[in-house]
Amino acid sequence: MPTYLGMPPFPKAARDAVADRRLRANLAHATGTIRDRRLAAVAELDDWAALREAGRRIKDHTLEHLDHYLRLLEERVTEAGGVVHWARDADEANRIVVDLVKATGQTEVVKVKSMATQEIGLNEALAADGVTAHETDLAELIVQLGDDRPSHILVPAIHRNRAEIRDLFRRRMPGAPPDLSDEPAELAEAARRHLRAKFLSARVAVSGVNFAVAETGTLVVLESEGNGRMCLTLPETLISVMGIEKVLPAWRDLEVFLQLLPRSSTAERMNPYTSTWTGVTPGDGPGDFHLVLLDNGRTATLADEVGRQALRCIRCSACLNVCPVYARAGGHAYGSPYPGPIGAILSPQIRGIGSPVDASLPYASSLCGACFEACPVAIDLPEVLVHLRARAVENGPRHPLVDTAMAAAGWTLRSPGRLALAQRVASSSRRLVGRRGRIRRLPGPLRAWTDTRDAPVPPPESFRAWWRRTDGGRRP
Amino acid sequence: MRIALFITCLNDTLFPDTGRAVVRLLARLGHDVEFPEAQTCCGQMHLNTGYRRRCAPLVRGFAETFAPYDAVVTPSASCAAMVRDWHPRIDPRAAPVAPKVHELTEFLVDVLGVIDVGAHYPHRVAYHPTCHSLRMLKVGERPLRLLRAVDGLDLVELPDADECCGFGGTFALKNADVSSAMGVDKAAAVRASGADVVCAADNSCLMHIGGTLTRNGSGVRTVHLAEILAATREGPS
Ligand code: SF4
Question: Which residues belong to any copy of the Cysteine-rich domain (chain B) (predicted)?
Answer without folding.
Answer: 3-83, 125-209
